[in-house]
Amino acid sequence: MRVLIADDHDLLRDTLVLFLQSHGDIETSTAADLAGACKLIETQERYDLVLLDLNMPGMNGLEGLKTALALKGGQRVALLSGSATREIVELALEAGAAGFVPKTLPAKSMINAVKFMAMGEQYAPIDFMTAVDETPTHPLAGKLTPRELQVLRGLTEGKSNKEIARDLQITEPTVKLHMKTLYRKVGAGNRTQAALIAREAGLF
Questions:
Q1: Parallel/antiparallel/unpaired status of strands 2-6 and 49-53
Q2: Average confidence (pLDDT) over 177-182
Q3: CA-CA distances (angstroms) from residue 200 to 100, 153, 169, 195?
Q4: Residues 3/118, Cβ–Cβ less than 8 Å
């Protein structure tokens, strides 16, 4: 079985390779961006499955998925992500993705998912797809929209506006707009204050 793993995080990519190759019948190739993945798809022997990181360079949301799906008369391509929403996953599956693999999936489950998709099946974790959207119960969370909460989480993780925008598939100006409104709602004057308020309140 031949699998291509495309992800711009070296550590995660190397870890996935180790997971898969420890099950001797899986041969892996890697790329760090969409352009590299597409080049391998076009020049190498056909892959049984291509795993694409949703947020790596060149992806442009689901456009990268559609590009890879169309190469060489059609590919089996699955999304790999630590931040995809259920809505994005549903759109990816509708577009023809072989499945969705959360980066938090345990090693054994990930290997089983890869084999399942390589055999022609479509995969997405049932618990992810059927999870009930969380209703904020925290007093501070109750003041914010779901998107503002996501931006605030990014702030508490020390991410830049660019990183938050990439993770959430939105533009940097949109991130700044959400920050402006969430600052007002939580009573913060800047990103550091907002992150401190969220941490002190035990929001994340």
A1: parallel
A2: 93
A3: 35, 13, 28, 9
A4: yes
Judge whether 28 and 51 are in contact, CB under 8 Å: no
Q: Is the pLDDT of residue 130 over 80?
A: no
The pLDDT-based confidence of 6 (bands split at 50, 70, 90) is very high
CATH number of the domain to which 146 belongs: 1.10.10.10
Name the residue range of residue 189's domain.
Answer: 141-200
Token pair for residue 199?
Answer: 């941490």
The position carrying tokens 């995809």 is 84
Q: What is the pLDDT of residue 132?
A: 55
Report which residue type is found at 11: L
Instruction: Report the largest interatomic distance among the alpha carbons of the chain, rounded to a whole angstrom.
Output: 57
**Beta strands in the chain, from DSSP E residues, in sequence order:** 2-6, 27-31, 49-53, 77-81, 99-102
134 pLDDT higher than 70: no
23 token code pair: 């099950």
Q: Which domain-ending residue is among 81, 97, 130?
A: 130
What's the pLDDT at 137? 57
pTM of this structure = 0.64
Question: For residue 15, what are its two tokens?
Answer: 């870890």
CB-based contacts of 131: which residues, under 8 Å, 6+ apart?
86
